[in-house]
Amino acid sequence: MKGYEICFSPTGGTRKAADLLAEPLFSETVPVDLTDSRADFSTVVLRAEDVAVIAVPSYGGRVPATAVQRLSAVRGNGARAVLVCVYGNRAYEDTLAELQDTAKQAGFRVVAAVAAIAEHSIVRQIAAGCPDDGDQRQLADFAKSIQAKLEKEDDSEPAIPGNRPYKKGGGSGMVPEPTKDCVKCGLCAEKCPVQAIDPKDPRKVDKNACISCMRCVAVCPHGARKVNGVLLAAVRAMLKKACSGRKEPELYL
Questions:
Q1: How far apart are CA 212 and CA 136, in angstroms?
Q2: pLDDT tens for residues 236-249?
Q3: Highest mean pLDDT among 126-140, 144-158, 238-252
Q4: CA dihedral defined by 77, 81, 87, 91, rounded to 10 degrees?
């Protein structure tokens, strides 16, 4: 058996949660980075005896369309899958249901699912520091429960919440742009999951291609990419009430 960690994590929060589940499950993990725009995911081929942790962030209660497209190219071949959706303390809505459908269409057998919390990718003050110590303890307990199910070879599919058809998707409209501190190093263009940034001139951004994942902001070594301050303040105000109470990780077995 091989263990795979198939992850779409532009700013690292989703990967943190996925690592907390995958590390106790697998002695050795094969990483598959769904943010890599240059990768050919059709070459990722699993076997029936393999197990994959498949992790995505929730964007407006949905799986990012880019992640759906790339996961769909992977060949699961009956491998068991542990699904993980990570959200910024608001709600994950139809994310797990959509991930479940996408994973099954790619040939995986879904045996467990987890909803976890991470620092909000746009409004960083929301769920700051998550997954925190409490989250980590819960995810460690979840990993033990999932391991026990795998060892029993119980391949039953859990009841996963969500609506079909899924809620209507939509972008946040938050497109990061360079500041005067930009030195045109090109790292943001290299790391952009959807190649929305011109590698020859990082000041040029395809706003129709941008998915507001904030990876360019996270990876810039000069702190030279920002979102519009007025828009950011509006989003912060909109999310304040919905994100005020602490959410807890959830496990579906």
A1: 27
A2: 777 777 677 788 99
A3: 144-158
A4: 100
Tokens 């497209």, residue located: 69
What size, in residues, is the chain?
A: 253
Question: How far, CA to CA in Å, does 37 sit from each of 45, 57, 63, 85, 253?
Answer: 18, 17, 17, 21, 33
Are 70 and 103 contacting, i.e. CB atoms less than 8 angstroms apart? no
Distance CA 161, CA 84 (A): 13
Instruction: Extract the tokens encoding 156.
Output: 């039953």
Instruction: Return the residue matching tokens 């769909």.
Output: 72
Cut 0.90: pTM above it: yes
Strand partners, 225: 178
For residue 124, give the amino acid letter. R
Nearest to 8 by CA among 71, 62, 51, 50: 71
Q: Do 81 and 18 touch, CB atoms closer than 8 A?
A: no
pLDDT digits (tens, 9 = 90+) for 183-220: 999 999 999 999 999 999 998 999 999 999 999 999 99
Task: Give the residue carrying structure tokens 């990722």.
Answer: 44
Residues 171 and 190: their CA atoms lie apart, in Å, by 22
Identify residue 118 by its one-letter amino acid code. A
* Rounded Cα–Cα distance for residues 89 and 169 (Å): 18
* Residue 131 preceded by cis peptide, ω within 30: yes
pLDDT-wise least confident of 174-178, 224-228, 241-245? 241-245
Please state, in angstroms and rounded to a whole number, the distance separating the CA atoms of residues 67 and 220.
Answer: 22
Q: What is the largest CA-CA distance in the chain?
A: 58
In the chain, the DSSP E strands lie at 3-7, 29-33, 51-57, 80-87, 109-117, 177-178, 225-226, 250-252
